[in-house]
Each structure stands twice: as C-alpha cells, then as structure tokens.
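Researcher: Quick test of sequence recovery. Tokens follow.
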C-alpha cells in the first residue's frame, strides 16, 4: 500500500515499511506542506506519517477520510483533531516512552545552563567581552538541595526528577490531576496545588501535554506567584507559557531565569528580546534529537502504520476508543 511521509525520517522506520511491502512517498522540501498540498498528496495514499507540525485538522481529515491509519512521529498529538479522526474511524498512533530520557536530558541541560548563565556568557566571548575579572559579576545559582517543581509528572517529568534528585539532592514536588504513587515512593515526591507549586519551586519544569486546560497556564499571574530566585523550564509545548508574560517577569525580576526548548511561535524570531537576557537559555526544540531516540520514534511510527494497514490494533494508539467501540 502507499504511505505518505511529511518529512525525511530515520532509515530504521523506512526499512520497516519497505520490508512490509509498502510504497513510500516522502516530502523532501525543507518547508512545511500547506494543508491543501497535504490533502492533494494524500489523495492516492493509504496511510500518513506526520513528522513535524502539520495541522491535521477537521478539514484535512474530512478530505482524507479514506486513510486507513495516521502515525505521528512524536509523542505529542496537539496538532491533530483526534475527535474528528475517531469519528471518521481513522486510528491515530504516536511514539510514547522512547523520548522520555532524551527530553529529560534537555530539561536538565537547560536548568544547569540557565543557573550558570551559560549561553549568555558564551556570547560574551564571541563578542570579545571576556575581559576584566570581577568577583561579584555574572554570578549564577547553585542547585544543591533546592526544590524542583514538576508540572505534569509523567514519564518525562519522572526522568527529570530522577536526574535532579541524584545529581543535586533536590526535593521534588509536583502538580498533576492524579497522584504519581511511584514517584512518591521512589523520590519522596509530594503532590501540591498549582499555587503551592508556583510558590515553593526553585526550579519549575513543565512536562505536560498541550490542551485547552494547559494552554497559557503560565501567565502573568502565575509568574507573579513564583520566587524571584526561581528558574522556569519548558520542554513540553511553547503555548503552555505566555511568552510576553515570561519576558515581563524576567525583565521585572519576578523570576530569575528561564530555559526553553519550545517557544510560541516556532521558530522563534532571531530578534526576540528573550534571546538577549543573561539568565535565559533557549534551544530550537531539540528535546528528542538523539540518534537513538529518533531511530526509536521512526520504528514506533512504522509499527503503527504496518498494524493499521493490516487492519490490526495499533501498538501505540492515541484514540483506542475506536477499538473499544468495535468490541461492544
């Protein structure tokens, strides 16, 4: 059958699909397909692999309702209208689990780099400003024994908490809908209210999915409740924080620093004033960007496609209710 892929993905996934006898059609231009272009490309396709941020909305899904399966080359699925896909009986799969360690590494990197003004100090060297030594200038913050707050203590948040506990003996608090009993037992993590998370965290790291509930959750009011010495980390999705409110909080010293792997919009403008602040470290959404992780993501995406084209249950479904309805 025919499979359309919206980006060049690692060969591990490509070979799995080819070995299963499928014909692949890959978008190789380094720009996003428009919705109309993607609709046109998928007219004679049986399956779609979404690798990137193409908006798979109701208009697209209605036009491409013949697709037997859609596989995301990501764990997040905020770019797809899952409700419409489910209504149209299109199974959707993602790639959970395999990127937890790599993304947690990125959050840890941003925390440490922000705490020592690393990106800014590197830029001073490039600008020829490594000069007179001042014992009281460009000081960072030590992390030993500080409180780590996790907003969304799932698999990625747990990996981040483990790293912080092991490296710096940090106390772990978190805010979730439900309790993470495993983290409470392993790390002595304590569930707190959102207000307590804001008020008590020395480092607040975001690891939740983007949803109606979480969009813009870290706004002016939220940043205003945080410690002036706090570091804000977001490696989840950019729209979870209000970027204008974050800039204001940093400029007015309501919080100390920020480390971002995600922005809103993406890509960030090179003229964004956040890039010039000394206690801000920003990366271009590289949370899962390791050879091992991207290979694993490609493999899981291929496995979802292969199962879907056989009419079998996807190994990693986003909308398992499709199968529950069939079983009734």
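Model:
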């Amino acid at each position: 059958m025919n499979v359309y892929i919206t980006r060049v993905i690692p060969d591990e996934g490509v070979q799995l699909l080819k070995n299963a006898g499928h014909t692949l059609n890959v978008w190789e231009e380094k720009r996003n397909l428009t919705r109309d272009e993607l609709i046109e490309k998928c007219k004679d396709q049986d399956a779609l692999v979404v690798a990137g941020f193409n908006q798979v909305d109701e208009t697209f899904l209605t036009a491409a309702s013949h697709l037997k399966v859609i596989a995301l080359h990501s764990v997040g699925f905020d770019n797809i209208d899952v409700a419409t896909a489910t209504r149209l009986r299109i199974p959707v799969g993602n790639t959970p689990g395999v990127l937890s360690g790599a993304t947690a590494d990125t959050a840890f990197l941003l925390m440490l780099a922000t705490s020592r003004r690393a990106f800014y100090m590197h830029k001073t060297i490039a600008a020829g400003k490594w000069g007179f030594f001042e014992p009281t200038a460009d000081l960072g913050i030590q992390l030993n024994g500080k409180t780590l707050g996790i907003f969304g203590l799932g698999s990625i948040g747990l990996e981040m908490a483990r790293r912080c506990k092991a490296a710096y003996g940090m106390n772990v608090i978190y805010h979730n809908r439900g309790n993470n009993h495993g983290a409470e037992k392993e790390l002595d993590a304590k569930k707190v209210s959102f207000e307590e998370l804001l008020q008590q965290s020395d480092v607040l790291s975001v690891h939740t999915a983007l949803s109606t509930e979480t969009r813009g959750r870290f706004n002016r009011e939220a940043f205003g409740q945080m410690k002036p010495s706090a570091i804000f980390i977001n490696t989840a999705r950019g729209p979870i924080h209000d970027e204008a409110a974050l800039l204001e909080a940093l400029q007015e010293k309501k919080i100390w620093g920020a480390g971002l792997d995600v922005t809103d919009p993406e890509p960030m403008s090179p003229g964004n004033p956040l890039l010039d602040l000394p206690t801000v470290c920003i990366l271009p959404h590289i949370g899962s960007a390791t050879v091992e992780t991207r290979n694993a993501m490609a493999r899981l995406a291929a496995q979802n496609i292969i199962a879907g084209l056989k009419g079998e249950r996807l190994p990693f479904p986003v909308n398992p209710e499709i199968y529950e309805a069939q079983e009734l």
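The first strand starts at residue 2 and ends at 5.
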